[in-house]
Amino acid sequence: MKDNSKISSAVIKRLPRYRRYLYDLQKKNVDRISSNELSNLIGYTASQIRQDLNNFGGFGQQGYGYNIQSLYNEISAILGLDQEYKMVIVGTGNLGQAIANYTHYYKSGFKVAAMFDVNPKLIGLRINDIEVLDYEMLDEFMKNNTIDIGIICTNKDSAQEVVDKLCAGGVKGIWNFAPTDLNLSDDIALENVHLSDSLHSLAYYINRNKQKDS
Amino acid sequence: MKDNSKISSAVIKRLPRYRRYLYDLQKKNVDRISSNELSNLIGYTASQIRQDLNNFGGFGQQGYGYNIQSLYNEISAILGLDQEYKMVIVGTGNLGQAIANYTHYYKSGFKVAAMFDVNPKLIGLRINDIEVLDYEMLDEFMKNNTIDIGIICTNKDSAQEVVDKLCAGGVKGIWNFAPTDLNLSDDIALENVHLSDSLHSLAYYINRNKQKDS
Asked: What residues bind NAD(+), as annotated (chains A, B) (predicted)?
């Protein structure tokens, strides 16, 4: 396997975005695109785009540009989207259910294997054809199944305990929606989606714009 | 009003996080904290913390540290969280409903005034005591109400049209959950929560860790 570990995290953050645009271009049956045309679409400069894509050998050809299909496939492979991931969701309130239903993900090889909750009203429900299991069964479930990703949709006070169980159960990554920061070992990947932080940033920029106007 | 427009966006991104920790400390009845103690909690270096907080006059006192209550209030005010925001949600599938129910926000002065959808099965439903209205009524609703924030929970193909309507209707900020990039005027604030980008980054880091191990 190619060594992509030297690609900077700033580039990695941009790759899913490139991939989204390349996906749309494919859908429109476009075969190839120049870095200038990509720049007009995505908003990064053409030189930034060339630099980003050169990182992993996505070389455009002079006078031809990038082959969209192969660039899309390459970026997908770098992101690991040519593989399948088994996931569990812990916390099946509205947000957990929304994540479970976000079928977009399933198309990309992310499969929810089970969902867990402590609430007797939720246990036994079927969401997107996946049964909500009793949180008490999490340890045993993790023993009997190979799960790649644990998704945390609990409140912030339960999040660390859940993460500890998931890590003991062998997950390789945590996708955290609880509004708290988690402690976990360096060899387990972590992505936080802190909704309240995002909303608070939005409030800041709204007020900064108001100050400019006044 | 104090001019905070010179604070860098990197600092702004960290403020909601400081605020979360200060909130927890308040709840534990802690009165004051040194930059070193804050550093141990949050994980930023003490000198980074002093630099960040000096940006807006949050000076700690030698031998005393920061007063938690006043620092919390100051950061809240900078973020504009001492004000109330009226919001509409467009798209009331699972994600839209999850956002509507995320009551955490209401406590901070973010109020959902109305929700909209095109789906006859959803129109008329009450979620968190807010009725889902017909999307056809959005223009008129925006004419008759002052709305600060529009929340986009539609699919990506509808997102830009919805944003255009909301901007014409006078919103000051857009909180976008649709997996697409939006065009809007510079004086309207925009925060994207691209869930699929976040999940794809997670997949990348999982695979990078695997490569390290092998």
From this structure: 91-96
